[in-house]
């Protein structure tokens, strides 16, 4: 069974502060007040497996926590693992994946009109087989993707986005979160984009990216590639830069209104069994 790792630490438990005063000699100290018991949220783990139709898109809409994507093999089997943090007395978050309008949808939801309780959340890990495009949406939750074999559309309102080794087209957007990506060769003709409102963007690529890269921000550019920079006075972003990495076979846009953009060289390294790290996939068991 695969091991599911929570992407963010569980909320810290409440602490108590004690004040001490010197008691007069020969006077017994006052009896200590009984400590208030802290009731920890319950952790509810669940697993779900389904067989997808060939090429069926996967939609993951989780406004209550993180989403982790992993390569799920070459058959049509999708596996879902979840960990819900459930405070006592709070309405439970329902998780009932189902097919809708030809898509496979994973969308945890509270009862209509209910809000998250303090310390309540649900985090998802989804193992997606080759050839299925995936769309992910979160609010404050982070999105992480590794070694996926399909097109990705990742959107978060405030969360961070991290992706590595995608064999497919990538579209990613967040607001004040950051984006960190290590990109393989772009699919021929692909138009890829990574955008934030104010968060930083850090991208590592090889010489085989085969893409014309355009960057725009009002903050700083940092790169190991030669850039052609154009000033855009009075605009936001206020400057734009372009570079060609490998063949001119696709495009990659990196844009932030006020976040720093770093474009770095991804220097391949190998694991002890001599498999290039970006070609490794996680074990299915």
Describe this structure in words.
This protein has strands at residues 42-51, 58-62, 67-71, 77-86, 98-100, 103-106, 121-128, 134-138, 143-146, 152-156, 161-164, 170-174, 179-183, 191-196, 201-205, 211-217, 221-223, 228-231, 239-245, 251-256, 261-265. It starts with 41 loop residues before the first strand and ends in a 20-residue tail after the last strand. It has 285 residues and is an all-beta fold. A hairpin with a 2-residue loop joins β5 (98-100) and β6 (103-106).
Short synopsis of the structure:
The protein has 285 residues and is an all-beta fold.
User: Order of helices and strands, N to C?
Assistant: EEEEEEEEEEEEEEEEEEEEE
Count all strands and give the number.
21
Q: What's the Cα radius of gyration?
A: 24 Å
Main sheet specs:
11 strands, mixed
**Portion in beta strands:** 35-45%
Q: Helix amount, in percent? A: under 10%
- Counting H and I runs of at least 4 residues, what is the number of helices? 0
Q: Termini distance?
A: 5 Å
Structural class: mainly beta
Please state how the strands of the largest beta sheet are arranged side by side.
5-6-2-8-10-12-14-20-16-19-18
Outline the fold blueprint:
Elements: E1 42-51, E2 58-62, E3 67-71, E4 77-86, E5 98-100, E6 103-106, E7 121-128, E8 134-138, E9 143-146, E10 152-156, E11 161-164, E12 170-174, E13 179-183, E14 191-196, E15 201-205, E16 211-217, E17 221-223, E18 228-231, E19 239-245, E20 251-256, E21 261-265
Parallel strand pairs: 2-6, 2-8, 3-7, 3-9, 8-10, 9-11, 10-12, 11-13, 12-14, 13-15, 14-20, 15-21, 16-20, 17-21
Antiparallel strand pairs: 1-4, 4-7, 5-6, 16-19, 18-19
């Amino acid at each position: 069974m695969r091991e599911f790792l929570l992407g963010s630490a569980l909320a810290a438990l409440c602490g108590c502060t004690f004040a001490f005063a010197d008691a007069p000699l020969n006077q017994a100290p006052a009896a200590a007040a009984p400590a208030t018991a802290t009731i920890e949220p319950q952790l509810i783990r669940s697993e779900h497996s389904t067989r997808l139709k060939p090429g069926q898109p996967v939609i993951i809409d989780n406004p209550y926590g993180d989403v982790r994507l992993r390569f799920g093999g070459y058959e049509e089997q999708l596996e879902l693992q979840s960990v819900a943090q459930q405070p006592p007395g709070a309405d439970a978050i329902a998780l009932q994946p189902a097919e809708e309008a030809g898509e496979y949808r994973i969308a945890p939801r509270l009862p209509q009109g209910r809000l998250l309780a303090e310390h309540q959340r649900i985090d998802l890990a989804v193992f997606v087989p080759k050839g299925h495009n995936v769309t992910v949406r979160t609010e404050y939750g982070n999105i992480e993707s590794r070694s996926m074999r399909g097109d990705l559309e990742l959107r978060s309102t405030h969360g961070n986005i991290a992706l590595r080794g995608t064999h497919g087209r990538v579209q990613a957007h967040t607001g004040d979160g950051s984006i960190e990506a290590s990109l393989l060769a772009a699919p021929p003709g692909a138009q890829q984009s990574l955008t934030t409102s104010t968060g930083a963007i850090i991208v590592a690529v090889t010489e085989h990216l085969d893409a014309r890269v355009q960057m725009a921000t009002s903050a700083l550019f940092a790169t190991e590639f030669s850039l052609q920079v154009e000033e855009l006075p009075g605009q936001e972003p206020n400057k734009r830069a372009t570079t060609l990495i490998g063949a001119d076979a696709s495009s990659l846009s990196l844009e932030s209104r006020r976040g720093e953009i770093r474009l770095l060289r991804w220097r391949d390294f190998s694991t002890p069994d001599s498999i290039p790290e970006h070609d490794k996939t996680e074990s299915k068991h």
